[in-house]
């Protein structure tokens, strides 16, 4: 069979390209994938107990784009989900990303406004220039104490590297909040995603 397009990779990007070319341009698309499954890191499968397992971690989806949600809704059913994380320090649990609740509990403060929290950050932050690594960007935002308590050792465990050995973009993507929002993401649309890449490939990339 002759194809109009060859797409390498059956993950998110490859799936979208294949679907758009097939459904909008009426093109014949061949998708090839080096793994033994499709859907990239969004792949899931049923285990021996009949439980649907996300092999590469949960498919947490978040966006502020209504257009994106409407497009993806053609291929998946959404499970409402807001990701919330707690960090354990000295046998106490604290919301992460750091927010007003984190600071009040950790330092026995009583901040009630965002302005107070901003002023606190400004009082403890260490101005570093230029920002060369992940340690620089965090210390520049929240100071050395919060960096040591919540970022340094987790980052070292996660990546097996000191924060100063990592690009600023690694820790820089973690928000620092001044309000009581305990969600990891603040986007308008937040869901748990399942089977999307698989369904899209099956329907359009043949």
Note down, in words, how this protein is organized.
With 206 residues, this protein is an alpha+beta fold. It has two domains: 72 residues, no CATH class; 88 residues, no CATH class. The protein is 39% helix and 17% strand. It contains seven helices and nine strands. Helix 1 packs parallel to helix 7 and helix 4 crosses helix 5. The longest helix has 26 residues. The mean pLDDT is 91.
Task: Produce the secondary structure layout.
Layout: E1 5-8, H1 12-25, E2 29-32, E3 44-46, E4 52-54, E5 60-63, H2 66-72, E6 79-80, E7 85-89, E8 92-96, H3 100-107, H4 114-124, H5 134-159, H6 168-172, E9 189-192, H7 196-204
Parallel strand pairs: 1-2
Antiparallel strand pairs: 3-4, 5-9, 6-9, 7-8
| Radius of gyration using CA atoms only | 21 Å
What structural class do helix, strand and pairing data support? alpha+beta
Provide mean pLDDT, rounded: 91
Uncertain spans:
none
Number of domains: 2
Compact summary:
The protein folds into two domains: 72 residues, no CATH class; 88 residues, no CATH class. It is 39% helix and 17% strand. It starts with a strand and ends with a helix.
Question: What key attributes describe this structure?
Answer:
single chain, 206 residues, 3-stranded antiparallel sheet, 7 helices, 9 strands, 39% helix
């Amino acid at each position: 069979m002759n194809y109009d397009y060859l797409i390498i990779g059956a993950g998110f990007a490859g799936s979208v390209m294949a679907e758009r070319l097939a459904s909008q341009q009426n093109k014949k698309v061949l998708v090839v994938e080096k793994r033994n499954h499709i859907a990239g890191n969004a792949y899931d499968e049923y285990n021996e107990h009949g439980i649907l397992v996300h092999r590469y971690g949960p498919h947490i989806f978040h966006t502020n784009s209504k257009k994106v949600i409407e497009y993806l809704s053609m291929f998946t059913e959404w499970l409402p989900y807001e990701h919330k994380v707690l960090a354990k320090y000295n046998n106490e649990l604290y919301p992460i990303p750091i927010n007003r609740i984190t600071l009040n509990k950790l330092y026995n403060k009583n901040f009630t406004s965002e302005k107070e929290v901003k002023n606190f950050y400004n009082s403890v932050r260490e101005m570093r220039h230029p920002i060369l690594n992940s340690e620089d960007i965090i210390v520049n935002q929240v100071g050395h104490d919060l960096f040591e308590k919540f970022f340094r050792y987790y980052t070292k465990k996660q990546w097996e590297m000191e924060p100063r050995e990592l690009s600023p973009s690694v820790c820089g993507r973690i928000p620092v909040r001044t309000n009581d929002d305990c969600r990891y993401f603040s986007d308008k649309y937040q869901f748990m995603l399942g089977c999307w890449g698989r369904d899209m490939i099956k329907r359009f990339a043949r």
